[in-house]
Fold this protein.
Amino acid sequence: MILAKVIGNVVSTIKEKGYESKKILIVQPVDYNGKNNGKSFLAIDAVQAGVGDTVLILEEGGSARDIINEPESMTIKCVIAGIVDSVNV
Amino acid sequence: MKLGKIIGRVVCNQKIAEFDGAKFLLVQPLDENLNNTGDPIVATDKIQAGTNEIVYYETSKEAGRIYETTMNPSDASVMGIVDDINLSNK
């Protein structure tokens, strides 16, 4: 998983079946010090994350399907799997 | 998924059997501020996205899964059309 910060959301009406009723958030990868580290991308929210939260991103299809346990979710690869409380280094 | 803008279509007559009937779009990857970020790619599309629309696409094996009946080997597919983007002011 990687660390990322939620910086916004995307509203989308027309989409593939697997994405229906899903919350799509814009996430910016960060390093463990909280500094931006890479390009932003989109992820499906599975833990009620909000803008400003630091979260864990899972970017693997099989795992994403296990989390979003629906038959049409074969098209989902990127999921927010947790909200980070603290990082201790 | 990544944000992108449809900038054109790709027509392909000679292709692998699995791509039969597939529609190919030229997608320019964008960042959250809708600035170009990277080179355009070709993605398959099933949701009838059109030129100049902002979309999001997925890559690797999940892209092929938009075609339920065949194990389509596409490695990038348009997944949805963006209506609105809300960013926090930072």
Notes: Chain A has a mean pLDDT of 95. The longest strand of chain A covers residues 2-11. The two ends of chain A are 17 Å apart (CA to CA). The longest helix of chain A spans residues 61-67.
